[in-house]
Write a structure and sequence with these properties.
The protein is an alpha+beta fold and 383 residues long. It has helices at 3-12, 29-44, 73-83, 136-145, 166-172, 181-190, 207-213, 241-253, 263-276, 323-332, 344-353, 377-381, and strands at residues 18-21, 50-54, 84-85, 90-97, 100-107, 116-117, 124-127, 130-133, 194-197, 202-205, 226-230, 233-237, 286-290, 294-300, 308-309, 360-364, 369-375. It folds into three domains: 3-134, 2-Layer Sandwich (Methyltransferase, Cobalt-precorrin-4 Transmethylase, Domain 2); 161-219, no CATH class; 226-381, Heat Shock Protein 90. The longest helix has 16 residues, at 29-44.
């Protein structure tokens, strides 16, 4: 590591991907546990590579150097490999800075998250400058991001086939095949809408099946509705995805203040939100706020491979969190609302280019939120 890069890290201050330690010792069981907790927390946190810098005070960021008893590179790798599952990839460097020896561990961006402490089975992440135990939905989201599990194909054991809107299934899926009852079950199972429970010998809907065809998915999948705020009033839209989108489109099209507004841009941002949201986060809905000064669509689910405000104009193929859901929406949405994606991001930008206005994309990694900010109604009406 260059001195310039080190000084940049020292100026930055502690964060999700950067931590300072005054000394570096692994001579006791307690210190080994704390060390692997810090390593896995940084590896599990959102963003790119992270750093642990030893020999620096955490408050003043003053270089004080490590003691002569600091562990060797071999010892560090041994502790990580025997206590982290899977092991975290790091680089060990000794750097002389202002006459003091610092040890810098570079923690590379991991494609094997979440990393777990073997001895306790615990998963850790960073919240700001603090190491904390990861919540269940955060662990599940990491597993999905790395293709180890899928939210959409998760069985919902307390739901049954009667919780489907059978008319929708018939119209969108079964009408193409005209199958008998047994064949209908096989078709729905092969498409991932239902799954067989070997214990009860019955079929249950999957989360994805309910999102697409459920009568009342929110009974089983909390916070999967969409909240729209307009003129100080809040309207909560619930139901399956096509039903919610139909309701919101009707709601928006009837608003007089949006008469001259390119409302297709609002719809496009909403379609992208539905496909990209983090459904493991059951604490918050997708929120649409319509103001005179701006229109915001805020969605649970930050993009992990970037930081801060991002330029989606040059990244029109962002990683899609819910590929299964997107593919099924392409097949089942009679209005073909999702055929434009991922070009839909470019469509958003093009919608306002003729007005000389821009769309903002804000990636709030700490809050696990992604926000699209469209120009407000006043911006359009004044042109």
């Amino acid at each position: 590591m260059t001195i310039q890069k080190l000084e940049e890290l020292l100026r930055a201050g502690e964060s999700e991907k950067l931590d300072y330690k005054q000394d570096f010792l692994l001579d006791t069981e307690t210190r080994k546990k704390e060390f692997v907790k810090d390593i896995t927390a940084i590896a599990n946190s959102k963003g790119g590579r992270g750093y642990l810098i030893f020999g620096v005070t955490d408050r003043t960021r003053k270089a004080v150097g490590v003691s002569d008893k600091h562990p060797s590179e071999e010892t560090v790798f041994q502790v990580i490999s025997t206590r982290c599952d899977p092991p975290v990839a790091v680089r060990y460097e000794e750097v002389i800075y202002k006459g003091k020896k610092l040890i810098v561990l570079t923690i590379f961006k991991s494609s094997q998250r979440p990393h777990q402490i073997l001895q306790t089975g615990t998963f850790y992440i960073r919240r700001g400058s603090t190491t904390d135990i990861a919540r269940r939905y955060e662990i599940a989201s990491m597993l999905q991001d790395n293709g180890l599990i899928s939210y959409e194909t998760t069985p919902i054991r307390h739901a049954c086939l009667d919780d489907f809107d059978k008319n929708m299934i018939e119209e969108h899926i079964l009408s193409r095949f005209s199958p008998d009852e047994k064949s209908s079950i096989l078709i729905l199972e092969s498409m991932g809408f239902i799954t067989y429970n070997n214990d009860t010998k019955e079929y249950n809907p999957t989360a994805g099946g309910l999102l697409l065809f459920g009568k009342s998915p929110q009974r089983f999948l909390p916070s999967t509705g969409i909240r729209v705020e307009y003129n100080g009033r809040v309207t909560l839209f619930e139901g399956n995805i096509p039903t919610m989108l139909d309701g919101i489109e009707k709601f928006i099209s009837e608003k007089a203040s949006l008469k001259n507004y390119p409302i297709g841009a609002i719809y496009e941002a909403l379609y992208n939100a539905v496909v990209h949201r983090d459904y493991w986060d059951a604490t918050r809905e997708t929120v649409v706020i319509i103001r005179r000064t701006s229109i915001e669509i805020t969605n649970p689910g930050a993009i992990w491979n970037t930081d801060g405000v991002i330029n989606m104009e040059h990244d029109i193929y962002p990683p899609r969190r819910n590929s299964w859901l997107y593919q099924r929406l392409l097949l089942t949405d009679k209005k073909d609302r999702f055929l434009n994606s991922p070009i839909g991001i470019r469509t958003l930008n093009d919608s306002f280019e003729k007005y000389g206005l821009k769309v903002k994309y804000i990636n709030l990694i700490k809050k696990n939120l992604f926000k699209v900010v469209l120009p407000g109604t006043d911006d359009i009406n004044e042109i």
